Amino acid sequence: MPDPGNDRGMELDGRRRVVVTGVVPEIDGGRFAVKRTIGEQVDVEADVFVDGHDALACVLLHRFQDGEWTETPMAPLGNDRWRGAFTVTKIGRYEFTVQAWVDRFMSWVRDLPKRIEAGQEVRIELLIGAALVEDARRRVAGPDAEHLARYADALRNGTREEQESPIPAGLGALMQKYADRRLATTYERTLAVVVDRERARFSAWYEMFPRSCAPTPGRHGTLMDCIQRLPYVAEMGFDVLYLPPIHPIGHTHRKGKNNATTAGPTDPGSPWAIGSEAGGHKAVQSELGTLNDFHRLVERASQFGIEVALDLAYQCSADHPYVREHPEWFRRRPDGTVQYAENPPKKYEDIYPFDFDTNAWRELWAELKSIVDFWIAQGVRIFRVDNPHTKPFAFWEWLIGEVKRDHPEVLFLAEAFTRPKVMYRLSRLGFTQSYTYFAWRNTRAELTEYFTELTQTDVREHYRPHLWTNTPDILTEFLQLGGRPAFITRLVLAATLGAGYGVYGPAFELCERVPREPGSEEYLDSEKYEIKRWELDRPDSLREVIARVNQIRRDNPALWGDRSLRFHGVDNEQLICYSKRTDDLASCVLVVANLDPHHPQAGWTALDLATLGLDPEQPYQVHDLLTDSRFLWHGARNYVELDPRRAPAHIFRVRRRVRTEQQFEYYA
Amino acid sequence: MPDPGNDRGMELDGRRRVVVTGVVPEIDGGRFAVKRTIGEQVDVEADVFVDGHDALACVLLHRFQDGEWTETPMAPLGNDRWRGAFTVTKIGRYEFTVQAWVDRFMSWVRDLPKRIEAGQEVRIELLIGAALVEDARRRVAGPDAEHLARYADALRNGTREEQESPIPAGLGALMQKYADRRLATTYERTLAVVVDRERARFSAWYEMFPRSCAPTPGRHGTLMDCIQRLPYVAEMGFDVLYLPPIHPIGHTHRKGKNNATTAGPTDPGSPWAIGSEAGGHKAVQSELGTLNDFHRLVERASQFGIEVALDLAYQCSADHPYVREHPEWFRRRPDGTVQYAENPPKKYEDIYPFDFDTNAWRELWAELKSIVDFWIAQGVRIFRVDNPHTKPFAFWEWLIGEVKRDHPEVLFLAEAFTRPKVMYRLSRLGFTQSYTYFAWRNTRAELTEYFTELTQTDVREHYRPHLWTNTPDILTEFLQLGGRPAFITRLVLAATLGAGYGVYGPAFELCERVPREPGSEEYLDSEKYEIKRWELDRPDSLREVIARVNQIRRDNPALWGDRSLRFHGVDNEQLICYSKRTDDLASCVLVVANLDPHHPQAGWTALDLATLGLDPEQPYQVHDLLTDSRFLWHGARNYVELDPRRAPAHIFRVRRRVRTEQQFEYYA
């Protein structure tokens, strides 16, 4: 006696004939969840087919967490592809899958008119239909059973005239409702969607060292000083304030100015050398203030619509309490000392990495999670994770999974600058957002290729790009050499190519651009190793441009996401042109930027009018939201000219002509 | 206490840090086996990486059936991609997977020279190395343990000079042999390879109706007549003789000439209407002879190097014994009659399909398998399966799996002409070879697109294309209108684009090309419904061209497979140009065909010389194996001209210049 279907999972019955396969979105065969933010739609497609010519019915099943399943119909697209969709309305984890079955009644309904048209006698066919209805009736109780019985009767006793349109409207609905699904095929995997709040997709970050926030020179800045700085940050329009580590800084092997191997007596050290006798990852450095001050900062920031993000840097200075209390979490060298961080021949003797190979890894993992729990209890909901690619993938998957189970509103930004597959693995396993290679993509070809990959391939299902113009570690050559126009161009690119972006300030708005030495991306006199005094009111500050750009972002829903990004042609390679839009085209933004910070550049666009929803026969306006000037354009080919000394980029709102009832026309 | 890695399969230990993913070849997440033929290589690639900077070791594991695992090293290709390979040497099922681990000793070996070059003191580093060797020693017994102990001692006590090259050659090998794999990651799936004999990849089929093989007119041909026909088939160079069903043919609703709904008293009926009171799928139609005659045919054919392939058409005439003995295997209509085959409004009343939805499906499956077993017992090893897409996928997967478990040498050719996803599903689930859309691909664009998909995408891992010039159901418009040149062109295309191909003869070699009516692909007076008399000796027969083409196929290993197929440019769209080659370039065939059967066409090639292994600076010969003429060519651009009335195609052997030790040159 044969065993059915070689015992493949779902195919317990050899009569389960429908195949459901090729389901998207699916990452690594369902190994990881896809990502959405609240209110977004999940479009699901699948290959669904059966042997022979039977009609199929196909539904999409979805549920929130382990709640009730909701069913929505899927529709055929042709070539055996089916599509359905559901909208995610809560933060947390959704599941979905696809189910399909042979619908004999539908086959019958489909074929009957063909038989009648061919002039065939259909008496027997009507009896077949009646038998199918009768079958359904046997599965049903109550009034529907009676309805079905009546329909079956009608089919059995139908007159010739009735046969011409023998399928009553209500019957189809009832038969669909009571379809025989005993041999339905459910896709062999249940796929997951992690739903985050909107800030996971759309946010503008400002990175700032609290210790440089003192209003008077020579004093160590404090968290209370940060509170005073909030209006400045809010006026520029940022909604996340990210602070480098605020914990006690180690003394042993402390780095001096410009990363000198020995520190002077007043050098404050790098905030990433975490831990001293005063405490570790759960303490606030006393020079910055108290935990209470931190609470106040979080609260005041929220009144400005700003969230405070903390740095999660899982490493220790030699003076961290862990080193003494948990020697088993660190690797020892044969001379009994603790193994410092290194990338041979480079040594980072002020940093002790955790030894994730330790036998005590479970205790280590638990303690590291307790750090996140601690700061969540202090009101933090966003963590910028330092170098996640130097800690095990399994650890992050566990940590993020555990944290988000209790706090699905928590966001983790992965600061990994490493090989692409490693970066994508981190986003797959759960990081909410990810740093990108944006800082080093300068030419049109580079930008187009990279952002097409990020927004138009499967990558977008798990990787949410976060674009930084600069960081304390990254002062790019482009900024060094391009000066103020380069800063503006990169600001516009970051803020419009990426719904998530950030700047490290005030270095950014003050166009700080002197490298430690030629060829270096390190800042000269980097804030990482000393307290800086920033002249915020300098007249050449970019704060107003930044404010304008962030306002444009908020005003134009087209810029709230990345999926609609499309590049358009321009016949000058120094110009880049791209658009974003909402599905309904109510918001449509077109950016043209001059990638040459040194010279004016001009050219003719080759716009994809269909993407922009424009009628090739109608004029339209492009309204530059940076300068408030408007241009009347027509068709795909339009002239643009950008002088970097005046305005290195346009951020156009595309306004199409609208005719009102009164025959007035205006541009919406 | 944290649970490790969210409990994902292999990650039972949170210290299992290496990720192995993106393994190819893999079909549908490992759901199906990839296909190879004996002697072929399986190239395996995987993404393998770990957090941080540790060195990795990576191996490919493979085994035949459930034998011992063999391990071969994989090498990094860059960008975290690794590659390895193994060769399949037996018919049956292989398995493979990938394993990788952090190799701390390799990291140490890699980093030590960097430390020494930087002038660092490495005494402690040597002790670290010694400890790693000592660790390995503890895992080993016997002489290797002593070797390792000595190496550890040497590292502990090394002098400064020894430190300059402190890693003895033998140590690396031992450390690799005894690597600590306790925390190795094995890819989460074991992938399968089904290995067939060579004929699964390279075969030339000849389809022939035995009943038309009688040497004298008016007589029903027999299997003994087929034996007489063998030299004719063998001379043309075919190695598979495929017979339409040879079973008793039903009487009820028998079809007459040209598919007439009523048959005359002498009409033989369609061989696909299987079964009469004389027997069913396990019987031989008495007019054809006996089972003994069939045995003789199989045996004689094998002496000619020809295998007999039988048709597996799972359907019954109304007179089939199954209909009486197993009414439960057929669907009943309300009037008590058996449901005939139909595609509304078309009715095929001479055919009863099996009802695979029957409750008795297990018994039905078993009986259908017993048919295959029966013919295997009669010496058949190749089955051409009629319309597999009208029977459940699960049935075929089970049937083929079961049959090949005991008889891995059995081949199944799927005759499915349906939607692409259905055809690909059939090949995925196990069909050895598959009919293609080749017959309807006539233009260069169509052929290039289709054969690129078949040979250069993942499709090639499961789908072995079988190209038919014509079949009893398919007389294409191209052949109808193009006449003899069209027949030759399509022969050359089928035989060189496809390592597996076939013709339906003698209709093909006699250029039979009159359709039943204009617009039909059916033959007028089709052999499906009547006995034909073929004038095999007609002077315009293509038998000699066919013999030549099949000889070329046998002589040129380039044509024994499809993976090397590459298309080259020609500046005339009516010309198509493509090549096949062996990996070592010892055999390289270049085809140029005129797709216009009506007019001479000429043009200039744009050859991809790298694919052909040609030096752009050296002349080379192209040797037309059809006409034995040779041309001296140079570079990518060469003139070709093909007159369909003389020779519609070139099959060139590419001969490159070879310089011997004696300074003579010739073209190999």
Topology of this protein?
2 copies of one chain form a homodimer.
Chain A: E1 19-24, E2 34-37, E3 41-49, E4 56-64, E5 70-73, E6 75-78, E7 81-87, E8 92-102, H1 104-117, H2 123-138, H3 143-157, H4 160-164, H5 169-177, E9 185-186, E10 191-196, E11 203-207, H6 223-236, E12 240-243, H7 291-303, E13 307-312, E14 315-316, H8 321-325, E15 341-343, E16 346-348, E17 352-353, H9 361-377, E18 382-386, H10 393-406, E19 411-415, H11 420-429, E20 433-435, H12 444-456, E21 465-468, H13 477-497, E22 500-504, H14 543-555, E23 566-570, E24 575-581, E25 588-594, E26 601-606, H15 609-612, E27 619-624, E28 630-634, E29 639-642, E30 649-659, E31 665-667
Parallel strand pairs in A: 2-10, 11-12, 11-22, 12-13, 13-18, 18-19, 19-20, 20-21, 21-22
Antiparallel strand pairs in A: 1-3, 3-7, 4-5, 4-8, 6-7, 8-9, 8-10, 14-17, 15-16, 23-24, 23-26, 24-25, 25-30, 26-29, 27-28, 27-30, 30-31
Helix pairs in contact in A: 1-2, 2-3, 6-7, 13-14
Descriptive notes:
Two copies of one chain form a homodimer. With 668 residues, chain A is of the alpha/beta class. Helix content of chain A is 27%, strand content 24%. The first copy, chain A, contains 15 helices and 31 strands. In chain A, strands 23, 24, 25, 26, 27, 28, 29, 30 and 31 form a nine-stranded antiparallel β-sheet that branches. In chain A, helix 1 (104-117) packs antiparallel against helix 2 (123-138), helix 6 (223-236) runs parallel beside helix 7 and helix 13 packs parallel to helix 14 (543-555). The first copy, chain A, is globular, with a radius of gyration of 31 Å. The termini of chain A are far apart. Mean pLDDT of chain A is 95; it is low at 1-11. Chains A and B meet through strand 1, helix 1, helix 2, helix 9 and helix 10 of A and strand 1, helix 1, helix 2, helix 9 and helix 10 of B.
